[in-house]
Amino acid sequence: MSKMSLDRILQSQGFGSRKYCRELIAAGEVSVEGQPVDAWKTAFPTEGLQFTVFGEPWQVRTHLYLALNKPADFECSRKPSHHPGVMRLLPEQFGWRDVQSVGRLDHDTTGLLLLSDDGAFIHAMTSPRRHVPKVYLATTAAPVSPQLIEQLLHGVQLHDEAGPLRALSCQEVDESRLEIILEQGKYHQVRRMLAAAGNHCVSLQRIAIGPLSLASLGLDEGEWCYLEASQVEALMQTGA
Ligand code: URA
User: Fold this and answer.
1) Fewer CB near the last or first residue (10 Å), C or N of the chain?
2) How far is the CA of 184 from the centre of ligand 1 (A)?
3) Pocket around ligand 1 at a 6 A CB cut-off
4) Would you tell me which CATH number, out of the four given (3.90.10.10, 3.40.190.10, 3.10.290.10, 2.40.37.10), belongs to the domain 3-59?
């Protein structure tokens, strides 16, 4: 198993520059596997290494795979302009590690958002060739009707799209709510499809991506969690 000096380990995990990490270690703010370590040159096998910084526990992770229950009024953009960015909801270190959202939700859409610093994972989840299904719960202004469902399943033409876009599945939940599954991830797609079908989306929540449901994660709005290796694996196999 490969070994790495403690300053490099901390830097790789997003704790700041090498110089700053050495200062943290020299100041006695870092423990490894329960033991304080104040020499930055001390090397450790990195895999799964447990350490604390300022008493807070961490584990070495080569890549980060996260799920967030996104609240409304947060932007997914890396340079948010009108609302705070979702990175504000995560530990600061994750920003240093270049964690990004996997695709985007509108600022007023809530629900399941994946984030990662693994480019291959982000690509696999967002590539149009993979058809990863995303499940949304849309609240509509006008009542849900069989005609609305028929239109969404049959396909609606949006401006700037070559052909009609259709939902993979569309089911009435109650008279003003619709569960809609899309394979594509076009800009404002659910809202634009509902508008094109003569209705209006009042609120939108993403409740699942492929095999991963928001309900199974048990996250309150604004909460995040690490994904288990098996969850990442199941996502990677979706639509492949
Ligand atoms: N479709 C939308 O219209 N908005 C989202 O945030 C996601 C899908």
Assistant:
1) N
2) 11
3) 105-106, 109, 188-191, 204
4) 3.10.290.10
What fold characterizes domain 134-209? Alpha-Beta Plaits (3.30.70)
Here the tokens at position 129 are 């060739």
- Tell me the pTM: 0.94
The stretch 54-80 carries a mean pLDDT of: 95
Nearest to 189 by CA among 222, 164, 214: 164
Helix ranges, the chain (H): 6-12, 18-26, 92-96, 119-126, 146-154, 189-196, 214-217, 229-237
